[in-house]
Structure formats: structure tokens, C-alpha cells
Amino acid sequence: MGHIHIECLRDWLNSRRTTKENLTVKTYCWKALDCELCKTQFPDRISAENGKFIELVSYEKPDLEYFILESVTSQNIKIIHVIYMANRTMIKVGRGHDCEIRITDISVSRFHALFKKNSRGDFILEDNNSKFGTLSLVRRPVMLDKSCINYF
Fold first, then answer.
1. For 2-56, how does the pLDDT look when each residue is reduced to its tens digit (9 = 90+)?
2. Tens-digit pLDDT profile for residues 64-81
């Protein structure tokens, strides 16, 4: 078991994937990304010999305006939300049934936050005065508008 074909591993991991979908959001969930024998957790991606990365989990990405959210959990669960924004100006996030992006965690308010698209096509995350606030982990540099920064 020291060697495995990448495509075989990818197929096996994706066979453990469930999906939920509405008109705007497609949510992918992997309940356990670990080896059934030794219980070691698999990474999302591995490095190849050419210095590039190979994604082990896969999901569909729309051709037009979209963004991807990953829910960070303390358990060994991976949740990816692919949000399709074409012809949409805002998306509600929360644990309520009327939200397009549902996050079923007690720390998330029923109507927690909004994703908005402004006239320039930029996506904006706006907290809805939620009890615990809204946090984001950004994996790439993001330019911040000085008017949006609060100084303490």
C-alpha cells in the first residue's frame, strides 16, 4: 500500500463525496478524508515532481462568474460551496432555511452575512450584525479599499 495511482485515489475520495444543490450554490461534502486502514488524513492536494500541485478532491466550477468557499471545521470534514453569481447581485449566508449558502453550525446566525456584487463586478462580504462576527481566511492577496479599514 506504499504506492497508489493518483487517479484511483482521486476516484475513491470522490466516491465518498455528497452534493447538495440549488439554483445558486452547489455544496460538496467529504465526511472523512482519511485512510480506512491507518486513519491518516489525506491532504487536499499533493505536490508533483514538476513543482505543480495535483488536486485530490474535485468539484465542478462554472464557466461564468463564481467564487468558492470552504467551510473550516474542527472535525475531519471538508465542505466546499461553489457559488454561481451570474445574474445575481447578492447571496445570503446563514443557518436559516431561506439562505442560499447554509452553514449548519451553532456559531452561525440564521442570517449571518451577505455576499454582494457591486457595479464594478467585485464581490463584497458583509456581516449582518451576527453575534460572533464573520471571519474569512484568504489564500491569495486581496486589495483592501482604505475606506473599508477601521482603525482602533
1. 677 888 888 888 888 899 988 888 999 988 778 888 888 888 788 888 888 888 8
2. 888 888 876 767 788 888
Does pTM top 0.85 for this prediction? no
Domains of the chain: 89-133 (2.60.200.20)
Q: How many CB atoms lie within 10 A of CB 98?
A: 9
**Distant-in-sequence, close-in-space partners of 32: CB < 8 Å, separation ≥ 6:** 16, 76, 77
Q: Give 61-129 as a DSSP string.
A: --SSSEEEEEE--SSS-EEEEEEE-TT-SEEEEESSTT-SEE---TTS-TT-EEEEE-TTS-EEEEE-S
What span, in angstroms and rounded, lies between the C-alpha atoms of 102 and 64?
A: 22
